[in-house]
């Protein structure tokens, strides 16, 4: 142990450093004398959380003018708990148990050899003084200060410097300085209600205990009760054994006396006999004494004792069998059988007959009174079937019955009940339909299956492969078990996933026992190890799909253990499946030691599988391609079920009603016939379902693509638009295959906003002529506006009235979905759903109504509106686009067509990708793979051009409808064509109703082309213009200009400039100008890095200048940086004041930069000045050695070596550091801590070592 005085001293900040040194000196001496010091140590880790979840790295440069990798919150993990500091004081949770969930980084600080009692005393001391509740300050006294203090105490090493310096970096920015007083006031207000001195232990009282804490207490109490019961039973057994031993001794004594008398009488009567024969007889008797004694003991044993001995022998055999297999995962204490049975009676009160009430009593005797299975009558399973399948009964009754059966599954004789179920298969049929039951019934049902693995007999029963028919399907026990396991594992419920994990784990452990040759003789027929060859692949697919998420460590361990078992039993199928589909198990390396061991086993098997393929010689290395990377359908397809199908059906119909009228309108906007809009609508949906990654995106014609198509194909025929789609698709596909998705990051949001607003204005102006029924031609936007104003008096009254009316109706219907119905009854719900459907289907409703009006007027001989005209019916032919065409008797070759399209070949794919990424960022729940979106759009446009499609991409309006409609997956309309890709139990066939109504936009468009095209003739053009105007009017965002002007005038100028250029000239010029402005700004930041110089004093005699560039060093910034360093050195450095350049931000360096730094070093040497470089990473050092002369550079490891060189042997070396900015404005900085590196260098100096 450690003296109490040392622990007390550690609470005092003034002597904490000295006490830490003293404590660590003693610990090091003790560790040197220990042979197993590592085994006694406790690992100390630092959990690093990013409070912005990655947004700081993306937005910090734009918001505060400085790049930040994250806003760090840290916690120390030691002795199995996570400790952190906040406004409430010091708190502790289980590792990773905070609201921040899993940390972004886990850094190992070191090993501590302090006893937990010392640490507990120390942490309580901190909690009442330095880190008490109410002392928290966001910048000066935060969680990172606490972890620094505790880390130094435990292992003598602090946390990384970049975390401690984060507040200083923020305060150095103008934004940080402006917000500092406000944050200080908020921080004081948040901690004003706390009392300083409140103990750390008391702070735990007001928080709820974790589930693990409550479970542990319950297990401890149960263990105590079991220990008492075991002790009483042991005493009874000892008394019985002592009594039996006394009886045995008496019997042995009587037997010996009787044998001696009989042998004496026989020798007297018969005389001497053959000695050899006598010796053999004696040896025979001597060889079997125990057997004879056992027979005698068994003959005189009481019947009750004999039964007890037989039961004990049977239990010993069962225990031996259980020891040969891994313990299964079961759920013992999750159900209170007495409470469940009481609630079960209440729920069924008055609904059961006498026989069924008798079955309830039998269940009570079997579960609560521990009677044998003989207590369950012949009608018990009929009663269970009635509860399961009688839907007039409350679902809670089925939940109660399943919970009671979960307890029964743990009993040794439950196998007798299961054997009775072989006649009607009541229980197993109900389990097979698990996906049709509500979630509250699925949970106890999966738990029941998991608990059946507790006993060998019932677990073997689950493995039977004998089949029966259920709903025209052949199923068996193993198929039912597998389906329950897979469905549970891939469900959305975490509790159900835990049950699925347990079932798969138990199945894998059963395989190990089945492969034991000695135990195979004990297995019933039909329960053989080969069954795993059939289901291992299916279970592996489910596990790999489960690994795409973020499972908890306990569930991850069980699944990884199961996967390791499956790789051992299935030959090459499972390893090949892992390599083909992924993800690799190695992605979870580092979660825990036991998981790492399982990953090593799996990787060993994978390597063995690869080696077996190379028996003919070493095969060339090939890059493994993951199917799910290029076809995300394989990620979500195994989870597809009928509930998602119904949701997709509703969303598909809704999107189809939106897409059909929009497609016709967009084709008109692009200067094409209406059928080309429909041609562009149906194929994209099918392809995006396979290759797309964002479920809300619906591929088809859009206003942006229509206006760009019109821009680049004006005055030509449809062949140019089709070729443009083909070439755009090729560009997109090539960019995606080269993983150039990062290119869209060079287009900022302000530029995108200006471009979108400009195209919206262009679309609205271009549709005004159709809205008013005018026939005008103009080549520019301003020309169109002039001619519309000039011919406004010639507007057709019918078109104008209908168009304006349609716009008003569309805008009103758009707001209809936001109407809140106070009535919560069924009638109110129906009204609310009706309003919602009318709102999202407003385009189809308005087009249909106006078309009906136009039809009847046209039949009566009146045509007050301009109609769309004839639309060619039928599906388009499949053929490659034409690479030559004729327009106005002029023939265009492929090169001439490309020349006419011009920059559109680049602009169109770039804009389409940008639109898809923007939609994905709004609606996607996770990260967006821009390269995959490029590949998908490329495939859609290339194949779409083969069916006469114009360029396509996603649309905000359709995506918003998809999201509001509750879409679940990108899968739309092609279920019956792709269902064979998944195993039968992973991907279950949907019901007939779901298949009939699962109509998607693609299918609805095909139906429209096949049957509805004759009626498109009657669609008024003014209605299509109204649809377009009401759709794009909300894409204009002028409020962002005012916001940008207040926050970033550069972004505001980029937005305004892009908008004006698009309006005055053309859209491609505006977009290119915006992109160029962004790239120029980024180049400027790279060429003109921000530099902060720090004046440091090591003591009264020694000073040095610390210069920190905020970005890396490459050739555009070399001269600027060298001149800046030279200016600072000329003004403030001297022969005794070295200049230290902190190269921590240098991630790489090129040839020009190396030569520039060499020249800088040469200039410093000529001026008799000192220039040092610190914090150079090995990559930069290697580049300097390769590209230049490394000997010319004076490189130190870090700032600690600088201080050590300047201080010499001065062990006090307190370093007061002060930031001096370029404007000579002093900003206070914290005191530089005494670093372990400095102390080690000073120690070397005191020993006479020379640097």
Automatic annotation (TrEMBL):
One Gene Ontology BP term is: proteolysis
Describe the location of the PPPDE domain by residue ranges: 42-184
Keyword Methyltransferase listed? The answer is: no
Recorded hits in SMART domains, A to Z, give: DUF862 (SM01179)
Name any one Pfam family assigned in the record.
STAS
Query: Where found in the cell?
Result: Membrane
Do you know which PANTHER family this protein is assigned to?
A: SULFATE TRANSPORTER (PTHR11814)
What is the name listed in the Swiss-Prot or TrEMBL entry for this protein?
STAS domain-containing protein
Positions of the STAS domain: 1105-1206
Biased-composition ranges for Basic residues?
A: 243-258
For this chain, the family text in UniProt reads: Belongs to the DeSI family.
- Record's InterPro entries? PPPDE_dom, PPPDE_sf, S04_transporter_CS, SLC26A/SulP_dom, SLC26A/SulP_fam, STAS_dom, STAS_dom_sf
Q: Under the GO molecular function aspect, what terms does this record hold? A: peptidase activity; secondary active sulfate transmembrane transporter activity
The residue ranges crossing the membrane are: 649-669, 676-694, 720-743, 755-774, 794-813, 834-857, 901-924, 996-1017, 1023-1041, 1053-1084
């Amino acid at each position: 142990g450690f003296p109490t005085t040392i622990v007390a001293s550690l609470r005092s900040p003034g002597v904490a450093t000295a006490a830490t040194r003293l404590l660590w000196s003693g610990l090091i001496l003790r560790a040197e004398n220990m042979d197993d010091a590592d085994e006694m140590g406790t690992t100390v880790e630092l959990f690093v959380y990013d409070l912005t979840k990655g947004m700081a790295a993306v937005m910090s440069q734009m918001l505060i003018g400085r790049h930040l990798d994250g806003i760090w919150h840290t916690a120390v993990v030691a002795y199995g708990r996570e400790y952190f500091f906040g406004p409430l004081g010091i708190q502790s949770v289980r590792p990773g148990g905070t609201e921040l969930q899993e940390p972004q980084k886990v850094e190992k600080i070191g090993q501590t050899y302090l006893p937990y009692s010392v640490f507990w005393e120390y942490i309580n001391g901190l909690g009442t003084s330095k880190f008490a509740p109410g002392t928290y300050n966001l910048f000066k006294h935060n969680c990172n200060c606490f972890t620094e203090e505790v880390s130094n105490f435990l292992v003598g090493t602090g946390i990384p410097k970049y975390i401690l310096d984060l507040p200083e970096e923020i305060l150095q920015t103008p934004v940080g300085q402006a917000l500092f007083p406000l944050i200080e006031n908020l921080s004081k207000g948040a901690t004003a209600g706390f009392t300083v001195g409140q103990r750390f232990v008391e702070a735990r009282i007001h928080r709820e205990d974790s589930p693990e804490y409550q479970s542990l207490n319950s297990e401890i109490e149960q263990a105590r009760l079991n220990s008492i019961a075991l002790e009483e039973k042991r005493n009874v057994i000892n008394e019985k054994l002592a009594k039996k031993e006394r009886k045995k001794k008496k019997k042995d004594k009587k037997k010996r006396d009787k044998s001696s008398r009989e042998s004496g009488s026989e020798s007297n009567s018969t005389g001497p006999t053959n000695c050899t024969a006598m010796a053999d007889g004696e040896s025979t008797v001597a060889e079997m004494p125990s057997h004879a004694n056992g027979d005698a003991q068994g003959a005189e044993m009481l019947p009750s004792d004999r039964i007890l001995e037989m039961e004990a022998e049977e239990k010993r055999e069962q225990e031996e069998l259980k020891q040969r297999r891994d313990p299964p995962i079961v759920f013992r204490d999750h159900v209170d059988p007495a409470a469940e049975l009481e609630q079960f009676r209440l729920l069924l009160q008055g609904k059961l007959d006498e026989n069924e009430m008798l079955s309830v009593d039998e269940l009570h005797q079997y579960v609560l009174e521990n009677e044998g299975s003989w207590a369950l009558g012949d009608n018990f399973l009929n009663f269970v079937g009635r509860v399961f399948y009688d839907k007039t009964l409350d679902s809670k009754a089925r939940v109660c019955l399943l919970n009671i059966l979960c307890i029964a599954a743990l009993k040794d004789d439950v196998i007798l009940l299961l054997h009775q179920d072989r006649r009607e298969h009541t229980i197993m049929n109900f389990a097979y339909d698990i996906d049709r039951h509500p979630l509250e019934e699925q949970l106890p049902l999966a738990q029941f299956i998991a608990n059946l693995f507790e006993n060998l007999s019932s677990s073997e029963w689950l493995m039977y492969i004998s089949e029966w028919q259920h709903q025209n399907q052949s199923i068996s026990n193993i198929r039912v078990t597998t389906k329950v396991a897979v469905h549970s594992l891939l469900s959305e419920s975490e509790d159900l996933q835990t049950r699925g994990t347990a079932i798969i784990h138990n199945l894998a452990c059963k395989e190990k026992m089945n492969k034991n040759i000695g135990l195979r003789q004990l297995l019933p027929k039909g329960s053989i190890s080969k069954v795993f060859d059939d289901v291992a692949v299916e279970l592996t697919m489910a596990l790999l799909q489960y690994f795409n998420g973020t499972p908890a460590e306990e569930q991850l361990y069980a699944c990884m253990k199961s996967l390791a078992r499956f790789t051992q039993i299935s030959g090459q199928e499972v390893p090949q499946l892992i390599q083909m589909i992924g993800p690799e198990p190695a992605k979870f390396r580092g979660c825990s030691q036991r998981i790492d061991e399982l990953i090593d086993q799996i990787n060993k098997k994978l390597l063995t599988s690869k080696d077996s393929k190379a028996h003919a010689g070493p095969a060339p290395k090939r890059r493994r391609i993951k199917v799910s990377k290029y076809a995300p359908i394989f990620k979500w397809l195994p989870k597809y079920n009928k509930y998602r199908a119904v949701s997709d059906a509703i969303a598909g119909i809704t999107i189809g009603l939106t897409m059909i009228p929009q497609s016709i309108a967009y084709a008109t906007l692009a200067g094409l016939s209406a059928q080309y809009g429909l041609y562009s609508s149906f194929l994209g949906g099918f392809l995006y379902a396979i290759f797309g990654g964002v479920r809300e995106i619906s591929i088809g014609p859009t206003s942006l693509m229509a206006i760009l198509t019109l821009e680049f194909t004006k005055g030509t025929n449809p062949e140019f638009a089709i070729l443009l789609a083909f070439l755009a698709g090729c560009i997109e596909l090539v960019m995606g295959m080269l993983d150039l998705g990062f290119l869209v990051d060079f287009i900022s949001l302000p530029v995108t906003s200006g471009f979108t607003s400009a195209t919206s204005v262009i679309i609205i102006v271009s549709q005004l002529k159709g809205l008013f029924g005018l026939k005008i031609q103009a080549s520019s936007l301003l020309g169109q506006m002039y001619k519309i104003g000039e011919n406004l008096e010639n507007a057709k009254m019918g078109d104008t009235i209908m168009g304006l009316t349609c716009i008003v109706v569309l805008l009103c219907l758009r707001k209809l979905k936001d109407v809140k119905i106070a009535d919560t009854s069924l009638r109110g719900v129906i009204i609310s759903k009706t309003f919602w459907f009318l709102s999202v289907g407003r385009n189809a409703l308005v087009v249909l109504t106006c078309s009906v009006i136009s039809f009847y007027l046209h039949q009566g001989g009146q045509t007050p509106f301009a109609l769309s005209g004839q639309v060619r019916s039928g599906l388009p032919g499949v053929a490659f686009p034409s690479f030559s065409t004729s327009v106005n008797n002029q023939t265009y070759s492929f090169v001439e067509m490309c020349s006419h399209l011009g920059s559109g070949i680049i602009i169109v794919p770039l804009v389409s990708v940008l639109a898809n990424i923007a939609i994905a960022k709004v609606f996607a729940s996770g990260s967006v793979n821009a390269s995959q979106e490029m590949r998908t759009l490329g495939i859609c446009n290339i194949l779409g051009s083969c069916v006469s499609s114009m360029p396509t991409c996603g649309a905000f309006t359709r995506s918003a409808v998809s999201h509001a409609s509750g879409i679940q997956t990108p899968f739309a309309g092609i279920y019956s064509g792709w269902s064979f890709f998944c195993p039968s139990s992973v991907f279950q066939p949907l019901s007939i109703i779901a298949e009939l109504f699962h109509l998607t936009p693609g299918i609805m468009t095909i139906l429209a082309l096949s049957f509805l095209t004759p009626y498109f003739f009657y669609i008024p053009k003014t209605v299509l213009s109204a649809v377009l105007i009401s759709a794009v009017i909300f894409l204009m965002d002028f409020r962002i200009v005012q916001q940008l002007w207040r926050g970033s005038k550069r972004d505001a100028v980029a937005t305004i400039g892009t908008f004006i250029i698009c309006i005055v000239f053309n859209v491609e010029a505006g977009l290119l100008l915006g992109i160029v402005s962004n790239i120029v700004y980024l180049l400027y930041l790279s060429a003109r890095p921000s530099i902060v110089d720090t004046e440091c004093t090591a003591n009264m005699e020694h000073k040095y200048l610390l210069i920190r560039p905020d970005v890396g060093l490459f050739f555009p910034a070399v001269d600027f940086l060298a001149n800046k360093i030279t200016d600072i050195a000329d003004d403030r450095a001297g022969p005794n004041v070295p200049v230290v350049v902190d190269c921590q931000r240098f991630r790489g360096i090129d040839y020009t930069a190396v030569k520039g730094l060499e020249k800088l070093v040469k200039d410093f040497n000529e001026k008799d000045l000192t220039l040092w470089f610190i914090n150079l990473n090995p990559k930069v050092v290697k580049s300097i050695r390769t590209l230049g002369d490394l000997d010319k550079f004076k490189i130190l490891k870090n700032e600690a070596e600088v201080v050590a060189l300047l201080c010499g042997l001065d062990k006090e070396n307190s370093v007061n550091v002060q930031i001096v900015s370029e404007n000579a404005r002093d900003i206070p900085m914290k005191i530089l801590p005494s670093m372990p590196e400095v102390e080690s260098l000073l120690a070397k100096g005191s020993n006479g070592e020379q640097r």
